[in-house]
From TrEMBL:
GO molecular function list: ATP binding
Lineage of the organism: Bacteria, Bacillati, Actinomycetota, Actinomycetes, Streptosporangiales
Protein name (database record): ABC transporter ATP-binding protein
Record CDD domains: ABC_DR_subfamily_A (cd03230)
Keyword Nucleotide-binding: yes
Localization annotation: Cell membrane
InterPro entries: AAA+_ATPase, ABC_transporter-like_ATP-bd, ABC_transporter-like_CS, ABC_transporter_ATP-binding, P-loop_NTPase
Amino acid sequence: MTTDVRETAVALDVAIAATELRQRYGEFEAVRGVSLTVRRGELFALLGTNGAGKTTTMEVLEGYRPATSGTVQVLGIDPYRRRRALSPRVGIMLQENGFLSDLTVAETIGLWRDLHANARSLDESLELAGLADKARVRVRQLSGGQKRRLDLVLSIIGRPEVVFLDEPTTGMDPEARRTTWGLIRDLVTDGTTILLTTHYLEEAEHLASRLAVMHEGEIRVEGTLEEVVGRHGDRVSFRLPPEIPLDALPLIGGHTPGVALAGGTPVVTYTIAGGDQATRAHEALVPLFAWAAERGVALERLAVRTASLEDVFHSVVKESA
Ligand SMILES: Nc1ncnc2c1ncn2[C@@H]1O[C@H](COP(=O)(O)OP(=O)(O)OP(=O)(O)O)[C@@H](O)[C@H]1O
């Protein structure tokens, strides 16, 4: 099989693939064996701590640098060796934009339009950027959030099949962020494949079909939001009844509780993982209520909640500490 045939075969339903990707900067290994697959039409969110290796991973996938080891493919093509073949099909929004800040918004869009065969019109681009009234304004006079929005629109001006968005909504106010999410969702609806990095967990919750949390160069957690938080477990919590000593708290499903102070009051929390996600909280509550009834105590402020993405994120960092 020639390289091209093999590449095409892989490209049918996988848009982005990295296998055992490693990236060194001198002695420092920034990415340590990352494997991920993004299917066509999917939005995959790469989350992680500062310095986790997200941007580095993106840069290798974008073809900015060759991988130190491992393989990467975008639309079945090696993004570094065949960057020119790939570039009309890929849109890239970097963390730092490279605008010529003396140009007006319209001139900047015009410049980008000239680079693409099937570019969106100036009017559509201004509309998508929410900058219809800023066409004659110089780019340097835009706010940080407006520049991000313009940058996003420039990355999709040529209607790419795959888009890399590195922290696309940083610096945007909550309203602008919501509008931008709408734009990103529309791209996905139209079949665009998107790999996005973000520090806003809510952004991943809103947009991602699948997500991964990176830390220290590795993917530590990966899956759909439901899978990721489901694996982490449900939380059952209540105020510790004053008359109950800590060692009298029951085991629930074999788990001991954690006790932490919340506003000066000890709060008991059980993390219920494994089992049937749909019913495990219920199964945990049955023996807990029996225990409380036996002792004649009420479980004050009883709450059951599924783990949040934030819980998952913090535990990834804590496990490494
Ligand atoms: N050109 C470079 N030369 C040397 N080290 C680098 C270079 N670029 C990145 N690094 C280091 O590699 C690690 C990963 O950086 P990277 O920018 O990929 O992380 P990140 O997950 O995108 O972080 P952030 O969320 O802060 O943007 C960091 O420790 C960073 O200091």
